[in-house]
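Q: My collaborator sent me two sequences in one message, no labels, and asked for predicted structures for both. Can we handle them in order? The first one she listed is below.
A: Yes, handling them in the order given. First sequence, followed by its structure tokens:
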Amino acid sequence: MVKKNNIKVIILAGGQGERFWPWSRFNYPKQFVKLPLTNSNTSKSLFQSSCERGRAITSPDNVVVVATANYARLIKQQIPWLKPANIILEPFGKNTAIAIATACAKRVISEETVFVMPADHYIPDTGRFLGVAKQSIHVAQTHNVLVTIGITPNRPEPGFGYLKTGARLDTGKGPDVWRVAKFVEKPGAVRAKKMLREKKWRWNSGMFAWKREAFIDGLRSYMPEHYKALTALSKDNLRQVYNKAPDISVDYGLMERADNVVMVDGNFKWYDLGTWDVIYEVGKKDSKGNVLLGDKSRVCLKDTSNTLVATKDRTPLVACTGIKDSLIIATPDVLLVLPRGKGQKVRDIYRVVSEKNAKLK
């Protein structure tokens, strides 16, 4: 049985969302943007929805947010119920391993179990998600394991991390639990298609559960520099700790190396809103396969199909004719146009533009 009062939820909210530009900006990244998605509450950002899920897992006093210091104002504005002591402001972003280690450094609950999730996921079915989260926490509390949540792929996705299922772990009721046989990061298009056919692979959701002690043991064995940083951490030396810590994800540094990693099947709809292609996939389509986000009065389409048009903050009129299979993203100062399927390339053009004009970052 899950001991709810012993759970700490860590929400990672420090990403920059470069592939979601130009709606996502350096000082206002995608996790804080309010997205008018299908079946979602348009008054909430992805970050706000993540915090609400966290509050459904544990007490509001046990929800911890980690983000870079320039997001402090946004965090406080969007989640006023967060305890100030539970907002950990990084001096600069340096990947997930040090962010999670920092949040785990101070024990705030006895026999603490930790559940980690990113702030930029779209999960429309909260009920199913909570069932899987509770199963993950239960497995972490009753076995000496590091738990990750795997999502059954519905398409080949070369840009995701993958987990291969090994032996099934007998945990009684609830979603299936597997030993993780292998991790593969960004396999490429050909291999991703093969993985989909094999049906033994899951997407790595980036959500984890473990006992605090199991995580610290893992750092001691596989990430000694992070373990030293964690044990030396104080409220006055965070920048020094970040300067010394290697820039590595918790997936690479710990989960791929440890021999006690298991995966719970995530039987809920899950979207990593990393690109505009995923926004098109999630969005409500009209009879011609078009998705319109934002102010529809500022969009005029003729002979246009299978295209996303997203307008934000009183953009000029976007008029399209003879367009198909495209992503058209408009703000008052930027118009981005690219073919569908090329959403990963937005980061490249973002970096070119921001070098020429820092105001457009």
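Q: And the one she listed second?
A: Here it is, processed independently of the first:
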Amino acid sequence: MQAAERIDEARLVNQGTYAKHAGVSAATVTRWIRDGVLERSLVQRGKRRLVDPLVADYERAERVAEKARADEDEGDAEDRESYQSARAAKVRADAEAAQLKLAKLRGELAPVEEVGALWGEVLGTLRRRLEVLSDRLGPELAAIDDEAEVRERLKAEVRAALTDAANEIANSG
């Protein structure tokens, strides 16, 4: 089972609830189970079968995509091929959207705005730390005659600024 298909016990619903979620009848869900369309998304609890809706949506999209690819291979008329090709592209896009939705729910994805804001803060902190180096270290370094010692002191201060930036990133998660 792939990471994108893990069942979350907290999301489990009964077949009727999943049917409403999917916009189909309970009989259709039963048929999907019987036909093997829904396998990895099912959990047996005594006589009841529960469904993880996100995994089931992914599973259904994957199954339809497979069928669309098979139909593409069988198509013989240009119109049918064009229709099947467009249908397969839509199904692949739906399957990808289901994978992204699962990844987002697991916290594996972050919105671009949040990442950009975090990097803005980190780079701002780093810039401020580096901008004050000359004022802070100038008098101290002017008194040092050894070039190697000046270099080491500068390296240590730059390293400290970079470490602070890295810690800010680590503490933001």
